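Morning!

This is the sequence you dropped in the shared folder:
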Amino acid sequence: MAAPAPADVETVRVRLPNSRKGEQFAYAELMLGSFHIRVRCSDGITRLGRIKGKMKRRAWIREGDVIIITPWSFQDEKCDISYRYTPPQRDWLRRNKYI
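The structure's back. Tokens below.
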């Protein structure tokens, strides 16, 4: 039987952006209503983000959240939001220098 993990070690599963699909980290800056959010992307561009249909009622996004976005191929100033990180996941990303 495997030994249990020590109490001070927390196991966190974190989804990272898939560079083949063009995904990247972003911060939610401003809620605009109608499932649109202004986001500051890791490449330094501010885009208008749209919450995808699957996420609309499952994940509530607030200003300051770390998210994964996919820029549109035909309009570079817009993107789709595909994932929101929880606070423990965000802390793990900072500890491991992803953001």
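Headline: Residues 87-95 form the longest helix (9 residues).

More detail when I'm at my desk.
O.
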